[in-house]
Amino acid sequence: MENICHPSKLPVESPWTCPGDDAYYNASIIWGLVGPMRMFGRLGLYSKMNYFFLIGILAPVPVWILSLKFPKKTWIKYVNVPVILSGTGGMLAVKAVNYMCWLSVGIVFNLVVYNRYRGWWVRHNYILSAGLDAGIAFSAVLLFFTLQMKKINGPIW
Fold first, then answer.
1. What is the separation, in whole angstroms, between the first and last Cα of the chain?
2. Residue 44: DSSP 8-state
3. Measured between alpha carbons, how far is 153 from 147 in angstroms, rounded to an integer?
4. Contact 34, 21 (CB under 8 A)
5. Angle at the Cα of 46 from the Cα atoms of 41 and 47, rounded to 5 degrees
6. DSSP for residue 16
7. Coil, strand or helix: which one is 154?
8. Which of 4, 60, 97, 125 has the fewest CB atoms within 10 Å, i.e. is most exposed?
9. Do 101 and 108 meet the contact criterion of CB atoms below 8 Å apart?
């Protein structure tokens, strides 16, 4: 799309943006121009964020203690706090509703369906995942041609 990364050149109320470029631009400003000492060091506004390193080290301890205290609860050994905390770093910069949808679908199909209908899950979960991805892509194309191409962008809250 022409001028997608230049909001001033796009039509008024255009839904198109390029958040990835903004994120890389902001990161280059933070690390190149401002510098880590003035961001996260004793001179910075975000110096308290360094405590999250301590939280990251200590967070697995309660899970480990719970696994010792309740050895019959086998699901506790599958809680991997470092993976949970670092996994969010790979997620896209999207709205909170996207995360809630991902979480609810993930819990339903990887906990409920996996435990109750394991045979179905083994045979069809991969196909379900591909279908959900394809459905989102198809819906995006359909919405563009039916609504956005005709300047119908939905409600402005």
1. 25
2. S
3. 7
4. no
5. 40
6. -
7. coil
8. 97
9. no
48 SS3 class? helix
CA atoms in the 13 A half-sphere facing the CB of 124? 11
Say how far apart CA 144 and CA 16 lie, in whole Å.
Answer: 11
Angle at CA 69, nearest 5°, toward 63 and 70?
90
Ranked by mean pLDDT, the top range of 80-94, 95-109, 114-128 is 114-128
Tens digits of residue pLDDT in 94-108: 777 778 888 898 899
The one-letter code for the residue type at 86 is S
Token representation of residue 124: 């069809």
- Calpha distance 86→17 (Å, rounded): 27
Q: Tens digit of pLDDT for each residue in 37-51?
A: 877 888 888 888 889
C-alpha–C-alpha distance, residues 11 and 15, integer Å: 9
Contact of 125 with 117, CB cutoff 8 Å:
no
Q: How far apart are CA 124 and CA 21, in angstroms?
A: 36
Q: b/e string for 16-30 if b means 16 or more Cβ within 10 A?
A: eeeeeeeeeeeeeee
